[in-house]
């Protein structure tokens, strides 16, 4: 029976691990999206709330389909640099769309 060379096996395992990590990093950094996000502008009307706007976008905008309402609100606030949910009449909001 042939004796296994431990050093050789360890080098082979190391090469395989490095190769797998390299492939995973490449796949992770590659974007699968071919379309850039487009934004449309909406203007806040009297009585509008961020919750109502987000709910409407969640139901009618494919960008937010299937997302939780809290996630939609957070995202709209982040895009528009809002520190609170308070809105002003005629305030412009950017809304992503597909």
Would you kindly provide a brief summary of this structure?
The chain is of the alpha+beta class and 98 residues long. Helix content is 47%, strand content 12%.
Account of the 3D structure:
The chain has helices spanning 6-29, 50-60, 69-79; strands at 38-43, 92-97. Helix content is 47%, strand content 12%. The mean pLDDT is 87. It has a domain at 38-97: LysM domain (Membrane-bound Lytic Murein Transglycosylase D, Chain A, Roll). The radius of gyration is 25 Å and the shape is rod-shaped. It has 98 residues and is of the alpha+beta class. The protein has a two-stranded antiparallel ribbon. It is built from 3 helices and 2 strands, in the order H-E-H-H-E. The chain starts with 5 loop residues before the first helix and ends with a strand.
